[in-house]
Amino acid sequence: MMSDADALILGIESSCDETAAAVVRGGREALSSVVRSQIAEHAAWGGVVPEIAGRSHLRAIVPTVDEALREAGCRREDLAGIAVTARPGLLGSLLVGVTAAKSLAWAWDKPLIPVHHIEAHVYAALMSVEDWQFPYITLVVSGGHTSLYRTDSPLDHTLLGATRDDAAGEALDKAAAMLELGYPGGPAIQKAATDGDPKAYAFKRPLLGPDSLEFSFSGMKTAMLYKLKGPGGKREDPTLPESSNLAGMAASFEAAVMDTLIRKCLRASKQHGIPRILIGGGVACNRRLREDMAVAAARRGVEAVFARPEHCTDNAVMIAGLGHARLQAGETADLLLDVMAS
Ligand code: KG4
Ligand code: ZN
Asked: How far is the C-alpha of 120 from the C-alpha of 122, rounded, in Å?
């Protein structure tokens, strides 16, 4: 008989534009991880289209779950529970994953474990740490969220500050669109910025006063528009992306976003006297963020840990992992479980 600590959890994720399923042992060891990305289906529209996302999840959900179980060599009787993202996300997309999870939980008589997507991104970063030493300052930075938390356990997060407008990933996506670099913008900006001078263009870091732990990225987007099209965005003929300094523009914008994130993390760490920082979410894949954060943290004697890149963007390993912690705490749901967009 398997102990609770080694329990196998099936995780299901469908909150945005990835259909994902995974089997995780003991909240730590991924036995399988299947991610079907819809990026190609949304690319022509320059962003995620909710109707397309919902339909795409519907087509993908059964083969994705099936593949995750097969890849893990996992039979239904081996599973201790089924974890699923119930919030936040696109309503129609969440419904697909939650309905699949309910059906399996009912048919196989397993506990149904609802998971909060943002908390799962935090859990993904916790999976990079061998011996947990709570509390942590945690940054979740993705296409939909830029939030700082104090994390006291995998299940216990206190919001310290969030974005007032655009998420960091959203700002990168919009900037990339202005530079005609394609979608999703984060990886495109990183690539275009590779040989660029991050000081080529001046972008103010929006720190919002000396003590604020909130974020605001919409001004940076406007600043880029002005640099490209003149004050008021009126110039008909933007000097970029044709000009040779596309790399400089991409690098300057990227550096301003990442620098802002780093300064806010270190500010939170100092204010709360917590010298340990966790970082997760899609933007945490960013190379400049990882490198510059390592340098800045070392200088302050702070430990900064990132989720593994494959656990930064949306995946179901983090859902199954947090699901394990929730099951151990008895935090399950009945079949009336509802979804919540926010
Ligand atoms: O966590 P995620 O997959 O989905 C949400 O929950 O939002 O994050 C997606 C976001 C997108 O905005 C994408 O542009 C950004 O993460 N992203 C990156 C990189 N890879 C993905 N941003 C900067 N650098 C990257 N390498
Ligand atoms: Zn996410």
From this structure: 5
CB 192 within 8 A of CB 181: yes
Q: Look at residue 128 in the predicted model and tell me its pLDDT.
A: 97
In whole angstroms, how far apart are CA 271 and each of 213, 278, 338? 10, 16, 37
Lowest mean pLDDT among 31-35, 41-45, 273-277: 41-45
Strands (E), 202-299: 276-280
- Whether 280 is in the pocket of ligand 1, judged by its Cβ within 6 Å, is no
- Closest ligand 1 atom number to CA of residue 15: 6
Q: Hey, which residues does 32 pair with through a beta bridge?
A: 23
Which of ligand 1's atoms lies nearest the C-alpha of 287? 26
How far apart (Å, rounded) are the C-alpha atoms in residues 157 and 216? 22
Type of residue numbered 324 = H
CB of 187 closer than 6 A to ligand 1? Answer: yes
Residue-wise pLDDT tens digits, 294-318: 999 999 999 999 999 999 999 999 9
Helices and strands in the chain: count of H runs, count of E runs? 10, 10
pTM exceeding 0.85 = yes
d(Cα 77, Cα 63) in Å, to the nearest integer? Answer: 19
Question: From the CB of residue 308, how many other CB atoms can be counted at a distance below 10 Å?
Answer: 16
SS3 195: coil
Q: Is the CB of 92 under 6 A from ligand 1?
A: no
**Tokens of residue 291, six digits:** 């490198």
Token pair for 41: 């289906």
Domains of the chain: 4-122+314-328 (3.30.420.40), 129-306 (3.30.420.40)
Coil, strand or helix at 10: strand
- Please name the residue whose Cα sits nearest to atom 14 of ligand 1: 186
CA of 179 from ligand 2 middle (Å) equals 24
Q: How confident is the model at residue 1 (pLDDT cuts 50, 70, 90)?
A: very low
* Cβ–ligand 1 contact at 85 (below 6 Å): no
Tokens of 34: 């299947």
Neighbours of 53 (CB within 10 A): 24
